[in-house]
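In the laboratory, one determines a bound structure by crystallizing the protein with its ligand and collecting diffraction data. In a computational setting the workflow is compressed into a single prediction: the sequence and the ligand go in, and a structural description comes out. We illustrate the idea with zinc ion.
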Amino acid sequence: MPSVKEFHPGDVVRMRKPHPCGGQEWTITRVGADVRLRCLKCGRRVMLSRSHFEKRIKETISSAVLNSAAEEQ
Ligand SMILES: [Zn+2]
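The predicted complex, in structure-token form:
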């Protein structure tokens, strides 16, 4: 398994701890020093520091890069 994780806007990820609404899946809307996420269940947006995000992420469900490499800029 690769040890370096890369994240891109449009990726769908699952977090270790569910959102209070019960949702566990999030879509990444922005990646930088901070990572912005939107809950797929309730639509609420949150921002986490990148290190915090990497500790909380459980798995990547779908990769925007793999799904639409042609759109990479
Ligand atoms: Zn939610």
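Helices lie at 50-56, 64-67. Keep in mind that any predicted model is a hypothesis to be tested, not a measurement.
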